[in-house]
């Protein structure tokens, strides 16, 4: 198993379909059919990704009447900053100026979120140049 947390995280989340499933779960999707309609993914691919996300503890099955629903676990909800970071990166670099796209808004005031920043324990804003990885020997 890799000693890099990024590699292990990517292995646990899987692929881009899995991240889009997690995104849709944050947006309120809970049933297989909701995910399938939103994503337009083949049912066999969706089944495999939902199983992997469930096996990795990111989603869990919860009974909902005659059906089961997929619900984010605490581990899944902890992916929220990852989804927001990908969204904000996409907003900044994947659209032409003025090109319309969906927006993530604060429910309380209807305003866009402030861009995510990385801060040191003492509150300083950090850039990649301010950090280093200590690898295992």
Provide keyphrases for this structure.
globular, 2 domains, two-stranded antiparallel ribbon, alpha+beta, 137 residues, 43% helix, Arc Repressor Mutant, subunit A, 6 helices
Total individual domains: 2
Strand order of the largest sheet: 1-2
Q: Would you state the CATH class of the largest domain? A: Mainly Alpha
Fourth-level CATH superfamily of the largest domain:
Winged helix-like DNA-binding domain superfamily/Winged helix DNA-binding domain
Strand content: 5-15%
Assigned CATH architecture of the largest domain? Orthogonal Bundle
Write down the secondary-structure element order.
HHHHEEHHEE
Total beta strands: 4
**Secondary structure tally, helices:** 6
Low-confidence sequence ranges: none
Main sheet attributes: strand count, strand direction, barrel closure: 2 strands, antiparallel
Distance between the termini: 15 Å
CATH topology grouping of the largest domain: Arc Repressor Mutant, subunit A
| Proportion in helices | 40-55%
Helix/strand/pairing class, anyone?
A: alpha+beta
Shape: globular
State Rg: 17 Å
């Amino acid at each position: 198993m890799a000693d890099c947390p990024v590699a292990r995280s990517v292995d646990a989340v899987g692929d881009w379909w899995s991240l889009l499933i997690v995104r849709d779960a944050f947006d309120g999707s809970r049933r297989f059919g909701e995910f399938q309609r939103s994503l337009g993914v083949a049912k066999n691919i969706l089944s495999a990704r939902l199983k992997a996300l469930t096996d990795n503890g990111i989603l869990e099955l919860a009974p909902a009447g005659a059906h089961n629903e997929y619900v984010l676990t605490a581990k899944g909800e902890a992916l929220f900053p990852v989804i927001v970071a990908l969204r904000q990166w996409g907003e900044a670099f994947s659209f032409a100026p003025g090109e319309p796209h969906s927006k993530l808004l604060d429910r309380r005031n209807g305003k866009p979120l402030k861009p995510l920043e990385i801060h040191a324990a003492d509150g300083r804003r950090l850039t990649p140049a301010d950090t280093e990885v200590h690898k295992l020997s």
